Amino acid sequence: MAQQILDPPTDDFFDEDRKIVEHLLAELGISFKKRNEARSRPEVNPSDAVNFSPPRLHQSRAQALQRIRKWVKMKLMLSQTAIVYDSGLAFERMDKDFLCSISRYFNNALNGPFMEATTRIIRLRHDFPWAVYAMLDFLRNGSYYMYPVLQQQYPRITMLDLHVHCYIVADKYDIPALANYAAVNYLRIVADVLALDWKFDDPDFYDESENLPCVNYHYWDMCAAAEVSRFLDSVVLLWRNTASSHDALRKVVLEMIMACFIKLMRLKSFQFVFHTFKEFRWDLAESFGEDGLEMSGRKRKENGYNSRTSTPTPLLKPIPTPETTPGSALIKVTVAPVLSYAREVYNGTRKYPYTAPIVPGTSCIGRVAALGRDSTSLKVGQLVYADATIHSRDNPDDIILHGLTAGASTGSKKLMEEVWRDGTYGEYTLVPLESVFALDEKRMKELGYGEEELATMTKYLCVGGLRDINLQAGETIVVAPATGAFGGAAVACSVAMGASVVAMGRNADSLARLEETFPRVKTVRITESVEDDVAALQAAAGGRAIDAVFEVSPPQAAKSTHVKSCILALKRGGRMSLMGGIQEDYPIPLRQVMRKNLTLRGTWMYNREQVLALIKMVETGILKLGKQGGMRDMTVFGFAQWEKAFDHASDNAGWATTVLMRP
């Protein structure tokens, strides 16, 4: 990258200060023009966050340097992005346009309604630091290698392991070029390892004194066994960090292992991996054919049948139609919504727990095809809404989202693995009776709603959080952030419930559309200044007390200050509904919560009564759906176009856009 050259900010520098700043800039690859080249002070856009003015001689050295640093930061932020990793201990600067062109993840982060778009700082968390370092090395130079310092820190790590680590981060941050480079080089080494000719049949694998692998045979066999052992280490690493149903590299590795399976089974090291790692064993068994391998006297079964196999990417194929049992309903799917983050879930980026193979898809609009014998009110052929939230009947704490996540408890995982696994991206889906809601088809037609409009109801189920804090007509509520799919829906629901709304967000265009659609809505831009944001919220409320807050932040907003601003803006006795997806601990102004008698109420999803309340709001015409309610775009894809549907949903995330799929 060419060295940047900046005009000197002023001639009023202290000499010592100038030397310090020039040294700092040199480390960043930036230099000042020579004094005789500087014709004027650099121009600064008034709209920029930093308004540079030269330090005066009477100012302290610290004040002068503070202004200089702000000015330099402003200049850098015009084209540069900082990537922070290793728990904040390391960072790299990279060109923003280059990052956006090579990664859809970075493009969405830097151009979407997220904090990164404002700060130009991307924090990469929970990644192996050397994998991120290698990723950045690849982005700069087109390759990476085994770094000496890495080998010193991790003596057992191999190039196979590094390739797998890079493949994992490439998949997580959607960098196809890096994923392809890592996979190709990994498979090249694997092919060489599996081509080695080892002649032993059943060597002693464990040293009884240390319980570690040992080799007691010919030197060549020792070398071959060591290479195979390193390969198996990388296999374990790959299987632990990727989603079995959708990973292409896993599939190729399985094919290579199958080609020399008998040879590998002679090795106790391979036997150890085979019997210890369940997912690897299951995937390998399924790869050998429709019936799989016999293991411990049992065959793996999927929902009562074992004729299905997991695929590296979603695959359109026929499967047996589920049979109804007491307490269930078989729904013929007519249209199903696509989440904006569906691609990240099903390619493993978000690491949602679910049992594979799985039919994706959450809720749907459909018609009852068959009913369990204990059904007393639903009728075959009836138009219904099938909801994605499924509770255990004997323990409401065990919750899954149909076709999306198995939750965190042992009971919830059992629900998905053994009973309610397959979602709505199929011609038929089996759901619990309590997840089925009858719709007044005649009334919906009178309101002008077709199946596509009705399918958008899933966005408005944020009404659960609003009802949990008992939002009343005439009250003032802040929705933050309000420009996403669920935030915008919360604005619509709050207006329908009779409240005045202050919509808070970063995207000025999206905020303007909300004001245009809902006359009772006022908007506030998030500035990351708590004091300014609190004042803006109170001003937008028009002098009225702010009674409630609805929070629905995405995971990327973990470092944003808007939650604190909203808490401080609440009146005494105010309520706050927390339905967001922030996954990290968040600082709360506890003293203010205590002194103002505030109530913070968490809500994950909703209950049956709240869904029925939402349907009543729609049927009475209080809550408008589809274009009547302000949505601008509803795009429908067929199941065969699942990839386009996932991409379109990801690229058009927001309240005013809905992506649907039909069989």
From TrEMBL:
Residues 326-439 form the Alcohol dehydrogenase-like N-terminal domain. One of its GO terms (molecular function) is oxidoreductase activity. GO terms for cellular component: mitochondrion. Residues 295-321 are annotated as: Disordered. Residues 487-618 form the Alcohol dehydrogenase-like C-terminal domain. It comes from the Eukaryota. This is Alcohol dehydrogenase-like C-terminal domain-containing protein. It comes from Didymosphaeria variabile.
